[in-house]
Structure formats: structure tokens, C-alpha cells
């Protein structure tokens, strides 16, 4: 079951999505998607315009390898599927300590302005859809 209202609220209020209202009429959510041998807990699409990956990260050591890989996987899916934007959400218990490292790694990546990184506390990530 997909909670479309929760996804819409998360996209607008937590991620700052400024998509027009009609975009939110078509929302999909898939859980535990395998992309390039990486299990992505949540893949959300909104209005065939916005692609969101939500990934929980428990150890900062994984960030160095995982962040570039997830950004690349998401960019390729965004481009191949014709989405306008890709938002990568990393959720962690220690999100404040990961933020600086994550943002430095993200800023060093070769990417365009339509790829965004959000590092959030795990407690702000609801269960969007059934596993």
C-alpha cells in the first residue's frame, strides 16, 4: 500500500519540492529495488518528473563508496526514464556528523544541477510503501 499523501508531504515539506500540484496526481513507490547490485530501500517517482531514492546508511565508512555509486545509478535512471530531477535521500542516526562529509563528497562529483542530496535523520523517514 502506498501512502501518497505522506509521500507528497515528504517531497514538499522535507525535500522542498516545488512541483505543481498536478504532478502529485501520479505517485509510485517501490521498496527494496536492486540497481547495480545495490539494494535501494525506497524508489519513489512523482508525476514522471521526479525520481527519489531513499537509502539508510549506518556507517560513515560506507559513504565514500556508496554516495558516488548511488548518485550515478540515480542519474542514469533519471536520464533513461526521462525524469527532470533526481533526489538522493540518505537517512542516518548520526546525520549531522555525516552531512559535512556527504556534502563534500557530493560537491566533488561530476553532476548537473538537477541532482540533489538530502541527508536526514532516520526518524524523519516514514514507511512510504510496503516491502
Give an overview in words.
With 131 residues, the protein is an alpha/beta fold. The protein has a single domain, classed as 3-Layer(aba) Sandwich (Trna Endonuclease, Chain: A, domain 1), CATH 3.40.1350. It contains 3 helices and 5 strands. The protein has a 5-stranded mixed sheet, with helices on both faces. Strand 2 (38-46) and strand 3 (50-56) form a beta hairpin.
Q: Largest sheet, described in full?
A: 5 strands, mixed
CATH architecture: 3-Layer(aba) Sandwich
Mean pLDDT: 91
Order the strands across the largest sheet as they lie in space.
1-2-3-4-5
Q: Strand share of the residues? A: 25-35%
Order of helices and strands: HEEEHEHE
Helix content bin = 25-40%
Find the structural class using helix and strand composition.
alpha/beta
**Rg, nearest Å:** 14 Å
Q: What is the CATH third-level topology name?
A: Trna Endonuclease, Chain: A, domain 1
Number of strands: 5
The first-level CATH class name: Alpha Beta
What overall geometry do the principal axes of the alpha carbons give? globular
Q: How many separate domains make up the residues? A: 1
The count of helical stretches stands at 3
Give the distance, in angstroms, between the N- and C-terminal Cα atoms. Answer: 9 Å
Low-confidence stretches: none
Strands, helices and their partners?
Blueprint: H1 4-14, E1 27-35, E2 38-46, E3 50-56, H2 60-81, E4 85-92, H3 95-108, E5 115-121
Helix pairs in contact: 2-3
What's a concise summary of this model?
The chain contains three helices and five strands; from the N terminus they run H-E-E-E-H-E-H-E. The protein has a single domain (4-124), classed as Trna Endonuclease, Chain: A, domain 1.
Amino acid at each position: 500500500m502506498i501512502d501518497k499523501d505522506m509521500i507528497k508531504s515528504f517531497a514538499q515539506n522535507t525535500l522542498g519540492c516545488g512541483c505543481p500540484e498536478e504532478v502529485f496526481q501520479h505517485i509510485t513507490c517501490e521498496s527494496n529495488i536492486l540497481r547495480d547490485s545495490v539494494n535501494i530501500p525506497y524508489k519513489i517517482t512523482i508525476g514522471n518528473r521526479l525520481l527519489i531514492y531513499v537509502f539508510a546508511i549506518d556507517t560513515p565508512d560506507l559513504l565514500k563508496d556508496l554516495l558516488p555509486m548511488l548518485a550515478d545509478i540515480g542519474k542514469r535512471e533519471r536520464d533513461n526514464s526521462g525524469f527532470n530531477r533526481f533526489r538522493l535521500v540518505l537517512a542516518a542516526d548520526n546525520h549531522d556528523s555525516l552531512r559535512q562529509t556527504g556534502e563534500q563528497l557530493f560537491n566533488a562529483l561530476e553532476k548537473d544541477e538537477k541532482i540533489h542530496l538530502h541527508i536526514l535523520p532516520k526518524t524523519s523517514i516514514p514507511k512510504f510503501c510496503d516491502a
